[in-house]
């Protein structure tokens, strides 16, 4: 059977979800069946879950990214390097910065935007752990502050104060890397370690909310031993050019700091909101087949989507694990839709666990329902990281970019 | 013969001159004969002539410094880590930031200060290639500008513009390193090399004044091929927060640049001026035995001293070569002075040559009266650098810090 006009499948975003969808689709669907286009801002994919390392400077950012053309079949998939500006779901068009694409089936996997909860000054003055650009900038910024310190007659200790907003997953993992990186910086720039302050401010009543309290305690103890100060149950009221203002109950305090990192949360994508899909903070509650309600031709996966965990009747947090699993289901369902035969497959999450790194040699988490800490957890974390590479690019990508401890 | 009170010799500064003086003195003079004290701001010596590499980021700054205690005999020499504030030549005292020292014989080898010729804004806004602190700051600053470039919606090309003020020895050597470093930075931060500008502004009518015109042409051609733009016969009128204003004849032009490096000259030391020695821009025209006129107990060497080259009846430029040769003579003369027997030895410079590096693999210069360029000159430059290490610390220091091309 030959189509006069092949259906057009457009995948927006080459993050975990989009890249799994594309690499699966290029195998599932033949050249005759559909025209597949992948759109991404950069010509590379980056490991969002490794950015805390690139941001601290403990892993080179090039280790955390790879070229998209190295993992897709360019004979099967058109790759368009461009930025998505808007989605017109009525006309079935995607507006790009430098062009326009028509689609019959759309996969939206555009990832998240940072969520600043309206806290004044965060957008202007705080650094983020968001992408390759922001990661290498943050690494560089911290290093320049150390470099500048001994170049001024009057030493300004705020150059050596780093505030991390948020003790969630990203915040804790970033602190773990800082704990290893800061002593190196002190040596590099002849700075007394005692002058450095690393402060973590968390509004919630605990670090790593959702983690087992014993694991939280383990993580906090480890980081405190590395010199991290925790201000738990403390909210950032404002971020200024010279630091932050925090509040605990009625009391407010100013902390002078030249580096403020906002690691306290993400929301969905503004493109999704502007396109008019029903959403909650940029996340669309998709149907069981991962489709936008009322739009059977639009699949939404990853951080832009919202899926309820039936066990606790709350949304799954946006993770790489979920995004990749959604990508597998999404590819199958797009193929079914193109062929107009077969059954759409429902998505079910299969949470294998969650491990938060505490630096090179330590981690805490739960894997297959079992609590792990220390070197064992750290090893598992590396295996989880390597698995993400394996799923997209097979063993050769693991060899190229994988994490193996050098002995 | 036993002194009731041993004469006190104080050496100020552990640069090329001071360190050669000290290492020679500790062998020449016995424990009974004198008490030797070396004062230096840092606990390390750095290779001033290698700072252009550390500043560009082509050589780690730790490769360009070593601990003073590793090259002096601490049984023979008291090392005081402190900053010289003032010299009181009448009371024969040196005031330090954290104390005071008395001397019977003083060696002033405090090096140079940058000379900005009263150009407005240079002190505030320009970077220098002056010491370890300024070198690692400059390296870091350039890198942060590249890191920032892709983090702004509106790209600001002035982040990628580097102005080097001065096409003298230091300016040219720094440009040579930048020529190699900038392509690396472009790759590191995904920056288009065509967006980068490296501009050298020189007020004199030629680059490398004093060098043979054929060598100057070779150097300029090499650097232009690496992307350096030269503005010769052009003066910097002002340095501002956003760049520089240059003038060529009547015309003025503003060049927007986030990095301005002032590499156009040094003067002697303000401490020497403030102490009331007769001086020309901080340099004291010493007698043939390297003593301050009218002060037989004060030796002045290195960049604080001024020695006339009889062949051209003009002062020798302040170089490491001269400073080290002065150190040898100075040590002998201090020993004579302590013993109050023997003859003061006159200083004669023995200029072996001068080679300006143009990066890892290229250089231009004159060695033993013979012009050299290219790989041969580059090899000689490395040998010159290694010789400075050898003279202070012998073969072990050369093995530790020497420059050998890795094949």
UniProtKB/TrEMBL annotation, chains A, B:
Pfam families tied to this protein: Pyr_redox_2
| One example GO MF annotation | oxidoreductase activity
Gene3D superfamilies to which the protein is assigned, alphabetical:
3.50.50.100
Question: Which residue intervals define the domain FAD/NAD(P)-binding in the entry?
Answer: 8-327
Q: Which residues form the signal peptide?
A: none
Q: Record keywords: Oxidoreductase included? A: yes
Query: Would I find Mitochondrion among this entry's keywords?
Result: no
Task: Output the InterPro entries linked to this UniProt entry.
Answer: FAD/NAD-bd_sf (IPR036188), FAD/NAD-binding_dom (IPR023753), NADH-Q_oxidoreductase (IPR051169)
Question: Under which EC number(s) is this enzyme classified?
Answer: 1.6.5.-
Name its co-factor(s): FAD
Indicate the enzyme's highest-level EC class.
oxidoreductase
Keywords (alphabetical) are: FAD, Flavoprotein, Oxidoreductase
Q: To which protein family does this belong?
A: Belongs to the NADH dehydrogenase family.
This chain's protein is named NAD(P)/FAD-dependent oxidoreductase
What organism is the protein native to?
Answer: Metabacillus fastidiosus
Q: State the organism's lineage.
A: Bacteria, Bacillati, Bacillota, Bacilli, Bacillales
